[in-house]
Recover the amino acids of this structure.
């Protein structure tokens, strides 16, 4: 059974569709890369998957229609890492990561042992336990991104939707983070992650979904989706393709102007 | 115990001390022992009347209204994720004042003592409905602030219009002084009228703790954590309208408490928007009780207005805050 | 510089002559119109030429001008004087056109004298002066001597000094009329006016209360000028008489205050409503206010005597 299934999902802003008739599904163990040029509808698609914006078509989570899930129940199944890295108050990193435990706690309840363990694991996985007592607003952009990822990890949801989690991260941390996502897949969870780095997408995702102008342009194994023809059609670029022992390398090299 | 655990007990003790001070200090200047004895036992009928019918309702209103203002300020700052938010921002205070001014102007206030607070409450709720109507039930923080500013300015303009059209200078000055806020000579009638709304409103606002925590990460993240933001908005606005509207209805518009108190206490509670709620309620109560005691000590015969005092005390705190923020950013 | 010093000196003298002001003013009433007059007015032609078109922009100068002017001499009064609540002479004001203190409307009336209050909006008055119109400003009266001075000054400016003397005599006769009750101790009174304001020391109200044989609670609580008394002070002081001024019926917070449940503690206190427009301004009507309060004092004395008599039996 798929953890997330989209069936003819369409989101309109005014008369024109921003996400147009998109259908695909994600099963447990998959790390699905959501790629496509700016404005292709990646963020909108993720928000529609959570019911944050009204959409046509059907979204099913663990086989159940989205509308049937109570917000708290949905939050225990799907974690979401938004692209905006908003942190309104200078709370400590620890306190911020613990926010991920909200769906598991009754109102007013203290953190349980399980909650604390989940927070510790998340802090370790995102490599942010070193600055656990620092105010989250005083961190650098990359550190902040990792702390917010830790918050999403602490939610311990079987499905994670991460919107450009590696934007602004140095290469080492970007690789670490993608590896973390791979671990989630290996644990039997599922990830939908939007990316702009095609090599990261090719090497760390089990499958890619390519959007252009709201429509699903290609879907399948990375090598197939990242073919020169598709890249030219989707992005208008040519690319250098290579491979090493651990997977493909795709580096955009030139602009193709029609 | 960590320092943060001490915050609430300490604030509670300060509030209690100021409550007692508010009971014992007054223009009548009776010794504390005799005043307390009169309050509890009723001997010395004249003093007992003063203690039971004037000082006690006044102190209770100071406690309740201060707590309502502090709590509403903390809740709105957390909800809008804006440290400059305060109850007045949503038009609640301005519209309650307009309701009260209309009660004065039409003469209803003179005919029926309850007319003034009831019309003020009506104004507060009408403003909230208007703001929600303008900003939408699911709208974001920015549209809400814009709608609040619009409603607030409209109510302010109408209040000025009423003052302008006022038939005689005494009525105008009476309205002006009322608008500055005071707890002088309020009775149990005011307590029984405002009390239930203040308690209910504060109850709604305290339910926000979890939602405000999650909103630290923004609206999308909060919703993804299972927070139904429609409910959050209803609690924040309904609670503010009830608690602050009732406060304005019986004591006039008292500014600065809802802005300054949460601001001052936020670092003390580790910037946690949920722990700030009870702290700001106690802090607001302390602040208003202190201001009311000060009003009676400094110049009792001038009937110093509470809104004036809270602004006089609040503004320097705020200036210091701006100064330290600037130095930190520099 | 010398001129500023002269003005300041004059102002100081004007402000600090409670006692002798009246007599001095009486002595040179025919001249410039009294000691309280600012020095600039001395440059005028004085009271010899009788102004033909006089405009008044302030309730208090309205009342004095109404009482003192020749028929037709007063061409416009402030709109307040037609208000039956604020003005005790609204019937007398009758058909005299009203003004609202605006320079434009007053200038169109072509007055040769404008009577104004010291606290009136200074901008239109300055404008009128710059247009060459004589403007005379009158200070707020704080006691009977101030009242006498203003009466004489208005009469002098209107060219009818003898009427001023008559009005002062009328006031003094009313004040001297001694039918005071046989108090061992003077009763305590307090005035709660509109907006729950009360009048303390240095007000006409205080002077009227004193002349009627009362102590003024507000003055004794340290209020000078206008101020406020809290209900608890009233309760603990237990004044003998509360005078509720019924200026403007509409929003009377003073009334509201006396509806407070705790006001039942004022059971022994006699309450009376009086038109406080009688003592708003320093006119001969002050004598009427004093007479009314003396009547209250007598009623109070009877009340107390009966009470004591019943208690004795």
């Amino acid at each position: 059974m798929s953890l997330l299934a989209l069936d003819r999902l369409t989101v309109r802003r005014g008369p024109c569709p921003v996400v147009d008739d998109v259908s695909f599904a994600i099963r447990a163990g998959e790390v699905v890369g959501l790629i496509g040029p700016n404005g292709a509808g990646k963020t909108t698609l993720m928000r529609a998957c959570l019911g944050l914006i009204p959409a046509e078509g059907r979204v099913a989570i663990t086989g159940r229609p989205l509308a049937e899930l109570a917000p708290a129940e949905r939050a225990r199944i799907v974690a979401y890492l938004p692209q905006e890295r908003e942190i309104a108050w200078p709370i400590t990193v620890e306190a911020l990561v613990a926010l991920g435990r909200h769906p598991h706690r009754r109102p007013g309840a203290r953190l349980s042992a399980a909650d604390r363990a989940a927070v510790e694991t998340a802090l370790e996985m995102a490599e942010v336990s070193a600055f656990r007592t620092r105010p989250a607003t005083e961190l650098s952009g990359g550190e902040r991104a990792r702390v917010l990822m830790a918050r999403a990890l602490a939610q311990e949801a079987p499905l994670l939707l991460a919107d450009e989690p590696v934007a602004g991260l140095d290469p080492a941390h970007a690789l670490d983070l993608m590896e973390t996502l791979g671990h989630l897949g290996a644990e039997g969870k599922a990830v939908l992650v939007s990316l702009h780095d095609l090599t990261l997408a090719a090497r760390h995702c089990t499958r890619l979904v390519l959007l252009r102008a709201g429509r699903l342009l290609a879907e399948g194994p990375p090598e197939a989706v990242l073919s020169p023809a598709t890249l030219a059609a989707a992005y208008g670029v040519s690319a250098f393709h290579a491979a090493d022992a651990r997977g493909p390398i795709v580096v955009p090299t030139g602009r193709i102007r029609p | 115990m960590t320092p943060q655990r001490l915050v609430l007990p300490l604030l509670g003790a300060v509030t209690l001390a100021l409550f007692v001070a508010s009971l014992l200090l007054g223009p009548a200047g009776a010794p504390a022992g005799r005043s307390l004895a009169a309050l509890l036992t009723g001997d010395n009928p004249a003093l007992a009347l003063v203690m039971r019918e004037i000082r006690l309702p006044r102190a209770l209103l100071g406690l309740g209204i201060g707590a309502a203002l502090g709590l509403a300020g903390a809740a709105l700052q957390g909800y809008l994720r804006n440290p400059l938010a305060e109850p007045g921002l949503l038009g609640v205070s301005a519209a309650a004042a307009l309701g009260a001014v209309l009660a004065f102007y039409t003469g209803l206030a003179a005919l029926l003592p309850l007319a003034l607070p009831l019309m003020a409450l009506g104004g507060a709720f009408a403003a909230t409905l208007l703001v929600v109507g303008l900003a939408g039930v699911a709208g974001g923080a920015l549209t809400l602030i814009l709608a609040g500013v619009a409603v607030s300015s409209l109510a302010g303009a109408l209040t000025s219009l009423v003052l302008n059209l006022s038939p005689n200078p005494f009525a105008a000055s009476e309205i002006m002084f009322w608008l500055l806020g005071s707890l002088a000579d309020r009775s149990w009638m005011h307590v029984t009228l405002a009390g239930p709304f203040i308690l209910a409103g504060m109850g709604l606002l305290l339910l926000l703790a979890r939602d405000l925590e999650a909103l630290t990460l923004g609206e999308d993240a909060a919703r993804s954590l299972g927070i139904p933001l429609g409910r959050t908005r209803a609690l924040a606005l309904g609670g503010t309208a009830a608690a602050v509207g009732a406060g304005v209805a019986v004591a006039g518009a008292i500014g600065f408490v809802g802005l300054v108190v949460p601001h001052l206490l936020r670092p003390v509670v580790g910037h946690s928007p949920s722990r700030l709620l009870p702290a700001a309620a106690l802090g607001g109560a302390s602040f208003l009780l202190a201001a009311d005691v000060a009003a009676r000590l400094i110049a009792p015969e001038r009937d110093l207005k509470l809104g004036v005092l809270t602004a006089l005390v609040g503004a320097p705190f705020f200036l210091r805050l701006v100064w330290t923020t600037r130095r930190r950013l520099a | 510089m010398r001129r500023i010093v002269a003005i300041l000196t004059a102002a100081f003298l004007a402000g600090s002559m409670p006692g002798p002001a009246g007599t001095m003013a009486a002595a040179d009433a025919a001249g410039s119109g009294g000691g309280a007059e600012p020095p600039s007015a001395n440059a005028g032609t004085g009271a010899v030429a009788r102004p033909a078109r006089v405009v008044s922009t302030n309730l208090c100068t309205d009342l004095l001008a109404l009482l003192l002017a020749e028929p037709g001499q007063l061409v416009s009064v402030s709109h307040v004087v037609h208000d039956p609540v604020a003005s005790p002479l609204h019937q007398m004001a009758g058909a005299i056109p009203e003004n609202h203190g605006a320079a434009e409307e007053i200038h169109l009336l072509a007055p040769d004298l404008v009577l104004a209050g010291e606290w009136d909006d200074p901008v239109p008055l300055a404008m009128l002066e710059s247009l060459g119109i004589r403007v005379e400003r009158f200070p707020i009266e704080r006691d009977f001597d101030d009242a006498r001075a203003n009466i004489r000054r208005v009469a002098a400016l209107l060219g009818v000094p003898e009427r001023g003397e008559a009005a002062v005599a009328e006031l003094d006769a009313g004040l001297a009329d001694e039918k005071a009750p046989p108090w061992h101790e003077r009763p305590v009174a307090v005035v709660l006016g509109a907006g729950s304001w009360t009048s303390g020391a240095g007000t006409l109200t205080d002077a009227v209360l004193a002349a009627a044989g009362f102590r003024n609670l507000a003055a004794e609580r340290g209020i000078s000028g206008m101020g406020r008394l809290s209900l608890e002070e009233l309760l603990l002081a237990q004044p003998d008489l509360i005078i509720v001024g019924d200026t403007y019926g509409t929003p009377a917070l003073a009334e509201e205050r006396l509806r407070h449940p705790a006001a039942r503690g004022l059971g022994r206190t006699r309450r009376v409503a009086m038109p406080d427009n009688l003592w708003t301004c320093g006119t001969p009507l002050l004598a009427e206010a004093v007479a009314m309060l003396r009547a209250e004092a007598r009623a109070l004395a009877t009340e107390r005597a009966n009470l004591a008599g019943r208690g004795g039996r």
User: Anything to note?
Assistant: The two ends of chain A are 42 Å apart (CA to CA). The first strand of chain A starts at residue 2 and ends at 13. Chain A has one domain: 2-85+155-255.
